[in-house]
Design brief:
Elements (H helix, E strand, L loop, with lengths): L17 H14 L5 H9 L20 E2 L5 E2 L2 H11 L6 E5 L5 H9 L2 E6 L2 H14 L4 E5 L12 E6 L8 H5 L1 E11 L6 E8 L4 E9 L12
Parallel strand pairs: 3-4, 3-6, 4-5, 6-7
Antiparallel strand pairs: 1-2, 7-8, 8-9
The chain binds S-adenosyl-L-homocysteine.
Length: 227
């Protein structure tokens, strides 16, 4: 602890106010390779604390994934940053997100693009995320209960597709719902192992694949959830 620090005891940082903790989170993001100023500004604007409840609330500004309802997780902030950076959404883009979860990733995307459509197979997660979007005044996000492995054919094609659950392969319906020149970011691999985050770019003639890094996501499961 620094000399002259009068914050009242060594609490490991948990007692600092949210603005200060949010600043520390932004420093952590930079040190983990989130360098795009637009992405950093979007993540500065969206308070992760709004998306975490219960006894994990005081860890909302740590660079770590945390449990949410329905046995799912809110992703690690640096992974949200790196995926958003790789997706590179433009201000006129419509983005489809598969796996609303807490709604945090959709909220970050909503600052950077024209419209976000986000789907989750759990009704409860969609309802809770919608409530947070309303509270934060994020009016360009539409959340739906749907099986995202089929995409959203009636709204396709999309400029960008962000998949936040791991598939064994990039789902065919999602590939076909990408515009030419469009980008999809998706974790690929077996659900109980380390997966590879890949970026798929649709070209005039096919698809180009880049491997980005190792990640670990909950699995993409077909069909709707019970809750
Ligand atoms: N993007 C989220 C984290 C997502 S966790 C956030 O920012 O908090 C992965 C989510 O994908 C879970 O909520 C899970 O219910 C959802 N999911 C898994 N399979 C799905 C499918 N086939 N369709 C839609 N959502 C799915």
């Amino acid at each position: 602890m620094m000399a002259g620090d009068d914050t009242g005891g060594d609490d490991g940082g948990a007692g600092h106010d949210p603005a200060e903790r949010q600043m520390r989170l932004l420093l952590a993001l930079r040190s983990r390779g989130v360098t795009d100023p637009r992405v950093l500004a979007a993540m500065e604007r969206i308070d992760r604390g709004a998306f975490v409840r219960g006894h994990f609330e005081d860890r909302a500004y740590d660079d770590t994934p945390l449990p949410i309802a329905c046995g799912q997780t809110i992703s690690q902030p640096s992974v949200v940053g790196l995926m958003t950076q790789a997706l590179n959404p433009g201000p006129r883009d419509t983005v489809l997100e598969i796996g609303t979860g807490s709604g945090y990733q959709a909220a970050v995307l909503s600052v950077l693009c024209r419209r976000v459509l986000t789907v989750d197979r759990h009704r409860r997660l969609v309802a809770e995320a919608e409530e947070i979007f309303r509270r934060l005044g994020l009016t360009n996000i539409t959340a739906r209960v749907a099986d995202g492995s089929r995409g959203l054919p009636e709204q396709a094609p999309f400029d960008r597709i962000m998949v936040t659950a791991a598939a064994e392969d990039p789902p065919g319906p999602l590939l076909s719902q990408l515009k030419i020149g469009g980008i999809m970011v998706v974790p690929v691999g077996q659900s109980d192992a380390v997966q590879t985050l890949i970026r798929v770019t649709r070209t005039e003639t096919g698809y180009a694949y880049d491997e980005l890094r190792q990640v670990r996501f909950v699995p993409l499961i077909e069909g709707l959830g019970q809750t």
